[in-house]
Specification:
The complex is a heterodimer of chains A (162) and B (397). Chain A is mostly beta strands. Chain A has one helix and nine strands, in the order αβββββββββ. In chain A, 6% of the residues lie in helices and 36% in strands. In chain A, the strands form two sheets. A five-stranded mixed β-barrel of chain A has the order 5-6-7-9-8. Chain A has a three-stranded antiparallel β-sheet with strand order 3-2-4, with no helix packed on it. The termini of chain A are close together. Chain B contains 14 helices and eleven strands. In chain B, strands 3-2-4-7-1-8 form a six-stranded mixed β-sheet, with helices on both faces. Chain B has a three-stranded mixed β-sheet with strand order 9-10-11, with helices on both faces. In chain B, strands 5-6 form a two-stranded antiparallel sheet. In chain B, α1 crosses α3. Classes of the chains: A mainly beta (162), B alpha/beta (397). β5 of chain A pairs antiparallel with β5 of chain B, so a sheet runs across the interface.
């Protein structure tokens, strides 16, 4: 990826510190990066974001769900590009740079999951049906200088994957 | 052809839509008094008050039924307060309708009003890490327009729609809205205006997305017997034949606000009817009517592209053919199936709890031939539809 200089510094940080996820338990923070769903121990139904207490299927009485890694790769179901900074609680960079969002279909799980697209990959670079995979990037840096990480959808075909 | 469950819309009233930042209760009072005057019913005679809630105006907004009752003067009436995001007004309508059909009341007021902040709708304040609405903003910056845009992009890439098709919806609705004194924006837009409109969430421009507005709407509904006593005849009265408040059926496989993911269809197969199709289906079934019977419809054009979806969900055309209807003028005033003759959300902007009730006001006036300046010729059956966050929907006739 044509890394922005700020990304490079962040990446250097990471070699020495643990990656703090912006949300607990939704994705792995070390390779291989995957999203983590919950799977009903009764009927095998999978749900994302992971949840507990009750299987989402109305026909299943299951109350036990266990974490399960989801497919790393999926196909773009749709995508967009935000041109205005979203309001809080989004922590927008200043100045705000447009970024893309993609809804991605995981075939095995039969789920479409929304995510930010890897920085630098814009709507014009995306198409429906395109293969993408889970990657991580910094969502925001908090007031104490701690980076909070989020999953992204990154094109599987190299777009300068160096 | 009346059915046993028909109710009568005795009166309708609105406070015009705008952006004044006044207390939402002030707007509600104007709408309430206008509806009572239109119905020629005294406030003391209202037996049930169904309020549609607003969540951005503090505690009074959470207990809207009570708030408006107190503002009008307590009468000991029965009340309810309903929240279902954009479908709040539809739920309030159903609440009043169910009370009347159950025999608990003969005449009821349904009312909603809102004062909205500027800019993007954001979740209510506070750090709520477990709240999907908070999560989608915090983790993804997935605003409402971003969700509308995902949908619009599907239309372009799957059905071959163009951004010009979307713009035509705004052109059509803005033209109708010019003739509506309750609309906030009474300016006709052209395709040329779109070139200069900034992209908000690609492929949607600012002009594709509805604004947020202040406004209020109220209707008085009653049993046919009550109307008969009042009017001496049921001739020319507007009937509510169906109201459907429908949840999705698991698995909901279409990505919808505010969810970050769909349900899984790996274990349980997706239902034959999609969520939005099922809302219309339920209403048609209740009413014993079909898409061919509808004279005019008010649909929730939160974005231009979404209006095209509704054409398909309502059965006005097959899936993927919505754009053809707007291109051919079928859904314009004067077309064979006018949609949003009021000007729609494109001309109103959304006043959340009031909007679904305003749709019913507009249909009432259309069916009575009282929509000067934007009247649908010979309107007999009207249909309104919208969708709330977290899967609520509705359709009265």
């Amino acid at each position: 990826m044509q890394a922005l200089s700020s990304d490079t510094t962040t990446l250097q940080n990471v070699t020495t510190t643990e990656r703090i996820p912006a949300v607990e338990g939704w994705f792995t923070t070390s390779e291989p990066y995957t999203l983590i769903g919950a799977k009903c121990t009764g009927c095998g139904t999978v749900v994302f974001p992971p949840r507990s207490g009750s299987c989402p299927s109305p026909d299943c009485d299951g109350t036990e769900l266990e974490p399960t890694p989801l497919s790393r790769k999926g196909k773009v179901w749709s995508y967009t590009e935000n041109h205005y900074a979203p309001p809080p609680p989004y922590v927008a960079a200043e100045p705000f740079e447009p970024y893309a969002l993609a809804a991605v279909e995981l075939e095995a799980e039969g789920i479409v999951i929304l995510g930010q697209v890897a920085t630098g990959v814009m709507a014009a670079d995306l198409s429906i049906g395109q293969e993408v995979e889970v990657d991580l990037q910094v969502l925001y840096r908090d007031d104490e200088g701690v980076d909070h990480w989020i999953w992204t959808w990154a094109p599987s075909a190299p777009k300068g994957s160096a | 052809m009346a059915t046993e469950r028909d109710l009568v819309v005795l009166g309708a009233g609105m406070h015009p839509w705008g952006k004044w930042g006044k207390n939402f209760v002030d707007y509600g009072l104007v709408a309430a008094k206008a509806a009572l005057a239109d119905a020629d019913v005294a406030w003391r005679d209202i037996e049930f008050v169904a309020g549609a809630d607003t969540i951005r105006n503090g505690y009074p907004g959470f207990v809207a039924g009570s708030t408006f009752s107190q503002a009008m003067g307590w009468t000991g009436a029965q009340i309810s307060s309903s929240y279902a995001a954009c479908a709040s007004g539809a739920q309030a309508m159903q609440s009043a309708r169910a009370q009347i059909l159950a025999g608990f009341a003969d005449v009821a007021m349904v009312i909603g009003a809102d004062t909205t902040p500027k800019g993007f709708f954001a979740p209510v304040g506070g750090e709520r890490k477990e709240d999907p609405d908070w999560q989608r903003f915090h983790l993804l910056g997935a605003t409402n327009p971003a969700f509308f845009a995902l949908n619009a992009r599907r239309r372009i890439d799957v059905f071959g729609d163009t951004v010009e098709d979307f713009a035509l919806v705004k052109v059509k609705n803005s033209k109708a809205g010019v003739g509506n004194p309750n609309a906030r924006f009474r300016k006709e837009f052209t395709l040329d205006d779109f070139a200069g409109s900034p992209i908000v969430s690609d492929p949607l421009r600012l002009l594709d997305i509805c604004a947020t507005s202040d406004g209020a709407a109220a209707v008085i509904i009653c049993t046919p017997e009550y109307a008969m006593k009042k009017l001496g005849t049921l001739e020319g009265t507007v009937r509510i034949r169906a109201v459907a408040n429908t949840t999705p059926t698991y698995p909901q496989v279409r990505l919808e606000l505010p969810d970050i993911a769909t349900d899984s269809n790996a274990v349980v197969q997706a239902p034959a009817l999609g969520f939005k199709d099922s809302i219309a289906h339920n209403a048609y079934e209740q009413a014993g009517l079909g898409p061919e019977d509808v004279s005019c419809a008010e649909v929730y054009d939160l974005s231009t592209a979404l209006e095209l979806d509704w054409y398909e969900n309502l059965g006005f055309c097959a899936e993927g053919e919505g754009a053809r209807l707007v291109r051919d003028g079928v859904t314009a005033l004067g077309g064979s199936k006018p949609v949003n003759a009021s000007g729609g959300l494109a001309s109103f902007g959304e006043a959340i709890p009031a909007q679904a009730i305003a749709q019913v006001c507009e249909l009432t006036w259309q069916l009575q031939g009282r929509s000067d300046g934007h009247q649908v010729e010979n309107a007999k059956v009207g249909l309104a539809i919208n969708q709330g966050l977290f899967g609520h929907g509705k359709t009265p006739r």
